[in-house]
Amino acid sequence: MWIFGYGSLIWKVDFPFEEKVIGCIKGYKRRFHQHSTDHRGTPEKPGRVVTLEVGCEEDEVWGVAYRIKEDDIEKVSAHLDYRERGGYSKRTVTFYPKDSNKSSLQLHVYIGTEDNYNYVGEAHEADIAKQIVDSAGPSGTNIEYILNLAKSMREIAPNINDEHLYKIEMNVLKLLEEK
Ligand code: SIN
């Protein structure tokens, strides 16, 4: 079984895996349009985390695919279903490795679709940044979430300009400077 990570699953890997491949899925956009009430915020003061929205054919979301060993599938699936319980459901999508000598593969991805209770949709990037700076939950601060994600994306996909992510990161850094 393969799992695709495009948010915290890129930088917080708390499950065993046998192989890790950098690449992308197509036809989706990574967006901070999902509330987090269980990890990076609380029900009273939700944080903002990423989900995937259907985009156009040219849209790509870069991240990491993990191959889970047969013997670990049940344990890892249960762990990740619990970790991603805040509105995410599992979909099967096609993954394209960065290394074009490797072939595409089918994998699972956790998506907070528009009908889940934590989906909040669009907001101005500066307002999303304000919410992130003000939020924390049982897993830590929302600031840590976005800074780790942006740092990881620069490492794994340095040539990809993920405008939405980097614009919000820039606004977060500006707000932190002003504090
Ligand atoms: C993911 O990382 O693939 C799912 C979203 C998240 O937990 O941040």
TrEMBL record:
Q: List the GO terms this entry assigns under cellular component, sorted alphabetically.
A: cytoplasm
Which BP terms does GO give this entry? Answer: glutathione catabolic process
Query: What Pfam family does this protein match (any one)?
Result: ChaC
Reaction catalysed by this chain? Answer: glutathione = L-cysteinylglycine + 5-oxo-L-proline
Question: Its Enzyme Commission number?
Answer: 4.3.2.7
Q: What class of enzyme is it?
A: lyase
Q: Name one GO molecular function term.
A: glutathione specific gamma-glutamylcyclotransferase activity
Q: Which residues cross the membrane?
A: none
**In which domain of life is the source organism classified?**
Eukaryota
Function summary: Catalyzes the cleavage of glutathione into 5-oxo-L-proline and a Cys-Gly dipeptide. Acts specifically on glutathione, but not on other gamma-glutamyl peptides.
Assigned protein family: Belongs to the gamma-glutamylcyclotransferase family. ChaC subfamily.
Name of the protein: glutathione-specific gamma-glutamylcyclotransferase
Give the taxonomic lineage as stored in the record. Answer: Eukaryota, Metazoa, Ecdysozoa, Arthropoda, Hexapoda
Q: Which gene encodes it?
A: LOC108741278
